[in-house]
Amino acid sequence: MDISTTAEAIIAARKSDTVIQIENLPKNLTEAYAIQRAVAKDYGEALTGWKAAFTATAAMEMMKTDEPAYGPLFEGSTFISGDTLKSPDHCLRRIECEYAFKMAADFRPRDKEYSLDEIISGVASLHPAIEVVHVRVNGAFDVGARAVVADHCGNYAFVAGVGISEWRSLDIIDQPVTLSVNGEQVATGGGKNVLGNPLKSLVWTINRLCVDGYTLREGQYVTTGSCTGMHPVPQSCELIADFGPLGQCGLNCTAQ
Questions:
Q1: CA pair distance 206, 231, nearest whole angstrom
Q2: Which of 8, 57, 150, 168 has its CA 20 to 30 A from that of 244?
Q3: What is the pLDDT of residue 146?
Q4: CA neighbor of 240 nearest in space, from 184, 164, 198, 173
């Protein structure tokens, strides 16, 4: 397929906030990541970090894959807790509650994988976070991972709450994580839904990025995948993701 032309079409769709039809979708994940790389290179915004996706068995089955995936987070779609997100009616607005790690060191490609201890020592803080999932390619969710990965791995917006540096004593596996919409609790889960442990997702993401030639930079985030699954919300609403002792992350959604 024509990687460059497809990347240009996805960039245009993201910038115009529209949904497009692509006839020749990637045949496999190799092509999908090649498109994603071209998008990240030419999009024109700084990267604020990376997202992990498909970190639950049900999500892998839905996306017709047997492995997680990663995608870029862009500056213009990175928010802080309490911000307002404007989106058009066609936006899917599927909400995920996620543990996000902010890095205190660079992780560069090397021959040997980074260990859990090395990665933990390079974490500056842990944040409660929300990801808003949407795709710009019509039918991408039905096709599965090879379409969604190309389309920024489904990222529409990333929202970071206030982080804490002393997070290692927190239970990030079994601590209940809840999503409330307009004051009503609509979803619950926990870090055990993220490859069994969000730290496992963090290690996978960093080492996979390095294998593919990327450097994860100091100050960037890695958001590790949904604790609560994907929950659709109305165009206008108030969201609160509650992570117990870690704190909350909030987002106001409104019409564009």
A1: 27
A2: 57
A3: 96
A4: 184
- Give residue 31's domain range: 3-80+94-175+189-233
Residue whose token pair is 């795709």: 135
Residues sharing a CB contact under 8 Å with residue 107, sequence separation 6 or more, in sequence order: 114, 119, 122, 206, 209, 210, 215, 216
pLDDT at 128: 99
* Segments of the chain scoring below 50 in pLDDT: none
Q: Is the dihedral of CA 203, 149, 124, 82 positive or negative?
A: negative
Residue 253 covered by a domain: no
C-alpha–C-alpha distance, residues 63 and 65, integer Å: 6
State the CATH number of the domain containing residue 122.
3.90.850.10
